[in-house]
Design goal:
single chain, 331 residues, alpha+beta, 6-stranded mixed beta sheet, 17 strands, Surface-anchored_actinobac, transmembrane helix, transmembrane, membrane, TAT_signal
């Protein structure tokens, strides 16, 4: 649904409130699951892949309505940019985002479950939705993201911040992860919340999630990927993902479409790489007042769970730092 922009202060306040509310709710129901941390591929999730360093650049416009694609940062053209790894055919190719429309056909239609667990979708139970699934299904596009392009692996320091800056389309879009067939849900991005919305992603990650569209039509999703190279250079790229939802929607309409800049927020300030050696608790001191307020409201047990949520991204970064240090030692 088309939305007007909000001020940066309101963005920050709403993101903070949403994060705290989500942490409290999740902690009350499932404190153990909060140990998962930032989104990254697990060894047993079937997402292991190694990308060909000689993979060529594709040309021409293509519509993909089935098979596997990922978007992510690349350096193979000599510059930091966002591209699509097109794994739908042989040979596999890298493609520019403006040349690719992801068609979410009617084979993807499902209904919103009648469960409080899916209330975050903001949709009536039983409503039809079009889903790009987290787990691959026949005849439906399977779109994810990765930080595995070989020159990125060689040059990226710890990881990247992936930000969703805005969405233009006829309905709502929510992206979420779910552990297992009946596991717990973890919302990542949603048009129901203020933009920008960001996620930390470690280097050498391959992830798929559920993309839920509430209405058919053309959706333009503005994304930005920021990182720091091992050389210390800060890099950033922004581009538009194009989705054509529903069989009755003409995917050709998405080519050349540009998102309304009034709907696009600036990315949040970069905090992916704090200066100096870091610990998992680094930078948490400023949260003490908030934590004591929560103590009075929900008790010590929930505060512990909330702290786990707050530092989970820092833990992911610490893992990445350790891996980078090990690589340097081996050299």
């Amino acid at each position: 649904m088309t939305r007007t922009p909000v001020t940066q202060r309101r963005d920050r306040l709403r993101r903070a409130a949403r994060g705290l509310a989500g942490a409290i709710a999740a902690a009350a129901l499932l404190p153990v699951a909060l140990m998962g941390g930032a989104a990254h591929a697990q060894e047993d999730d079937g997402l292991a892949q190694v990308l060909d360093p000689d993979q060529a650049q594709g040309t021409g416009q293509v519509v993909r309505d089935a098979g596997h694609v990922d978007f992510g940062p690349t350096l193979n053209t000599g510059e930091w940019r966002i591209q699509i790894h097109d794994d739908t055919d042989v040979p596999r190719l890298w493609r520019n985002l403006e040349d690719v429309v992801l068609q979410v056909n009617d084979a993807s239609i499902s209904q919103v479950p009648d469960s409080e667990e899916f209330a975050f979708l903001g949709l009536d139970p039983g409503s039809d939705v079009w889903i790009v699934p987290q787990v691959q299904e026949p005849d439906v596009i399977w779109a994810g993201w990765n930080t595995q392009e070989p020159t990125v692996l060689e040059n990226l320091d710890l990881g990247v911040t992936l930000s969703m800056l805005g969405v233009e389309g006829p309905g709502e879009l929510t992206v979420f992860l779910q552990s297992g067939n009946f596991g717990d849900t973890e919302p990542l991005w949603s048009t129901l919340d203020a933009f920008p919305q960001d996620t930390w992603i470690e280097v050498n990650t391959h992830t798929h999630a559920n993309w839920v569209f509430s209405e058919p039509g053309i959706y333009l999703v503005e994304v930005q990927i920021d990182g720091e190279l091992a050389s210390g250079e800060m890099v950033s790229a922004r581009d538009t993902l194009r989705f054509s939802v529903g069989d009755a929607t003409d995917p050709q309409e998405a080519f050349g479409a540009e998102i309304d800049e009034a709907l696009v927020a600036d990315a949040a300030p970069e905090d992916t790489l704090p200066d100096g050696p870091a610990t998992e608790s680094e930078g948490d001191g400023g949260l003490s007042l908030l934590i004591w307020i929560v103590v009075g409201a929900v008790g010590v047990g929930l505060v512990i769970a909330i702290l786990v949520v707050i530092v989970s991204t820092r833990r992911a970064k610490s893992r990445a730092r350790a891996a980078r240090a090990a690589q340097e030692t081996e050299r």
